[in-house]
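Schema walk-through. Below, the input block comes first and the output block second. Nothing else is stored per chain. Lengths vary across the set, and this one has 215 residues.
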Amino acid sequence: MKSYRVRAAVALAAAGIAVTACGGPVQAGSAAIVGKERITSSKLNDEVRALRADLAANKIPEEQLQLPASLPQMVLLNMSFSRQFQEFGQRKGVTATDRDVDDIAAAQGGWDQFKKVLLASAIPLDQGRDFLRAYVIRIKLMQQAGAGQDQASQQAAVQKVMEEADSTVPVKYSPRYGKYDPKQAIFVPDDRFGASSTAPAGGAAAGAAGAPQAG
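--- output ---
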């Protein structure tokens, strides 16, 4: 496949994954339910710790990350995105190969350099390949939905793909992990997690739609 310049796109995709995710009751001990798969609170806590360890090892101060939500919320969103689109891709017969994933890293100067992009987007390194695999699947689905090089076609394609993904593999978040506002499609300020982004509704979706560019 073609390589893509995703230094900004990864962060935007991470921010945009909740565009159509819906709230609702989830099982006790779950941070989210993606389709029929649980993301447990224990697993989320493990990945938050892993991310903080990765940031420390790479000398990236957590307070310098410019994220549209709190660190735990972003990790949860990224994990949900990975699971949603890998399952959705399976149902649509769309896959991402190891070569596809490696091409993204190669376009950014190799994995050593790309690790910083992942960490800046609140993606633990042990989740990096899964996230990128889901990202590639979404790109391929957008291309099938008519995404071209212009922003308008990309926005239309991402909207179509996200709506179908949410209908096929719905995501529900536990209110324990923040106040999710479906109208704004973001987590809103919550005392347990601190303030999250108050960007206008649709901002993340528009950015994610316009991010992929043929390289």
